[in-house]
């Protein structure tokens, strides 16, 4: 029984800062991604200045800025119905607070969008994807300063008007709930582990939520056909035991993320936030019209990333990375070579959880497997583990649709190898297309099709019906 509608959006997803490179070309300014070095500890000691003899992977990435036409043509060979990417804010406003936009940056995205449309791919655009202009951190302190609301709204007005006939689906912020666990990437703020951290995080969050709402309201005046989405990292959190304290602690931790979608989809602060504010002495600076903006600027759909589930125990330290909250090892799940549990049924679980809560369309805009790909004696990459991961998650997504969940589409992260947001590595590979680029920046950037490329093509051509991959192994 095939549950996917004929107009289901099968696609792939990347981010500008993880693919484009050309970090100072054609008037682009620095973003927060451009000062993050390669390595697992890249967030431990953030230096806001570029250092000599330090390798910054975003500076060249996979050079998508110069190869996008060839790369999009190659990805079109899989039959992608849509393609998610972001607009680099610092290509449009190099400092974030500039008076006028950078025309060269606008022309680049005109050409990129035209290329996508030529190949029949619906553009899915993230407005801010972990690439806030660096000047907005250095001069204003990032999103805890509400001046960024106006800078963001001005940026949105420019790109909405410029691309109003080319883009239908937008998302305001990437994984906005990572303001807690990846505060520099998600909220562009530097925080210390002290009594003020939560105030800074929630003030930055409030300002981003207001900015998101203002963008939604603005979009309706420019093109009422726009579909405006929010985007969160929403892998499920399971209690580590049947102890009631573990169960309720897991529930509270889950609500820390759902707080963001509650506001963006319902239009008001949930009642449970009152206790969080009181117990942590959080006093937010809320503008006179902010709450009205939140009411009037609710999103049309919920985009989210799903990579894994998490196992939580009361009292454990809460840590997270780009895959979501990290918890205890789950003895019932296998793990990737990068230590992420593989939990396909968790995708069905979270789809039902979110649709039950909001009754708004869902869009799975990130799901994928990071692996260490190797060439065999024939010079081929037979990535069976990736194909199995894809198959299992398509099956559970189909089950969620049969459960009654409305899902607009599915964009695999990333269809071509790109720089890892969490560690800056290239060797943690997600793509159906291999890029010859290594962690130290070496490699000739040659593109090589993996066996999973034709497997995903088969899935798309059959609209999710043909899932056997024996022909590719």
Automatic annotation (TrEMBL):
Assigned keywords, A-Z: Glycosidase, Hydrolase
UniProt keyword Protease, yes or no: no
Coiled coil residues, start to end: none
Active site: 366 (nucleophile)
GO molecular function annotations of the record: hydrolase activity
Highest taxon above the source species: Bacteria
InterPro entries associated with the record: GH (IPR017853), GH_1_N_CS (IPR033132), Glyco_hydro_1 (IPR001360), Glyco_hydro_1_AS (IPR018120)
Family as reported in the entry's similarity comment: Belongs to the glycosyl hydrolase 1 family.
PANTHER family to which the protein is assigned, alphabetical: 6-PHOSPHO-BETA-GLUCOSIDASE ASCB-RELATED, GLYCOSYL HYDROLASE
The protein's name in its UniProt record: Glycoside hydrolase family 1 protein
Organism: Fusibacter ferrireducens
């Amino acid at each position: 029984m095939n549950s996917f509608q004929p107009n289901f959006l099968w696609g792939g997803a990347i981010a500008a800062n993880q693919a484009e490179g050309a970090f100072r070309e054609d008037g682009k300014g620095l973003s927060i991604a451009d000062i993050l070095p390669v390595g697992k500890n890249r967030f431990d000691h953030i230096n806001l200045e570029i250092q000599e003899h330090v390798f910054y992977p975003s500076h060249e990435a996979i050079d998508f800025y110069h190869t996008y036409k060839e790369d999009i043509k190659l990805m079109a060979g899989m039959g992608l119905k849509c393609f998610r990417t972001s607009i680099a804010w610092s290509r449009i406003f190099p400092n974030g607070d500039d008076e006028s936009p950078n025309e060269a940056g606008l022309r680049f995205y005109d050409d990129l969008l035209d290329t996508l449309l030529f190949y029949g791919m619906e553009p899915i655009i993230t407005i801010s994807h972990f690439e806030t202009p660096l000047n907005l951190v250095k001069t204003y302190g990032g999103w805890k300063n509400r001046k960024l609301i106006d800078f963001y709204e001005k940026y949105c007005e420019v790109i909405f008007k410029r691309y109003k006939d080319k883009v239908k689906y937008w998302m305001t912020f990437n994984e906005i709930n990572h303001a807690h666990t990846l505060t520099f990437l998600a909220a562009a703020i530097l925080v210390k582990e002290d009594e003020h951290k939560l105030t800074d995080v929630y003030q930055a969050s409030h300002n981003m939520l207001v900015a998101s709402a203002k963008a939604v309201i603005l979009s309706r005046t420019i093109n009422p056909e726009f579909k405006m989405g929010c985007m969160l990292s929403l892998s499920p959190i399971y209690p580590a035991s049947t102890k009631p304290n573990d169960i309720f602690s897991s529930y509270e931790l889950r609500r820390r993320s759902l707080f963001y979608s509650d506001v963006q989809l319902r239009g008001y602060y949930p009642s449970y936030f009152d206790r969080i504010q009181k117990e942590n002495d959080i006093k937010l600076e809320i503008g006179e019209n902010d709450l009205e903006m939140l009411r009037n600027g609710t999103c049309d759909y919920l985009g989210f990333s799903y990579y894994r589930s998490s196992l939580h125990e009361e009292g454990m330290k809460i840590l997270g990375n780009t895959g979501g909250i990290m918890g205890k090892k789950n003895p019932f799940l296998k793990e990737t070579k990068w230590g992420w549990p593989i939990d396909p049924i968790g995708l069905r679980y979270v789809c039902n959880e979110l649709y039950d809560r909001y009754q708004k369309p869902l869009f799975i805009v990130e799901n994928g497997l990071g692996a260490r790909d190797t060439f065999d004696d024939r010079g081929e990459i037979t990535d069976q583990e990736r194909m199995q991961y894809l198959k299992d998650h398509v099956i559970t997504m189909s089950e969620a649709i049969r459960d009654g969940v409305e899902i607009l589409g599915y964009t695999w992260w990333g269809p071509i190898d790109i720089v890892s947001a969490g560690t800056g590595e290239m060797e943690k590979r997600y793509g159906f297309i291999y890029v010859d680029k290594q962690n130290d920046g070496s490699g000739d950037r040659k593109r090589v099709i993996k066996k999973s490329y034709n497997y995903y093509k088969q899935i798309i051509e059959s609209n999710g019906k043909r899932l056997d991959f024996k022909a590719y192994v």
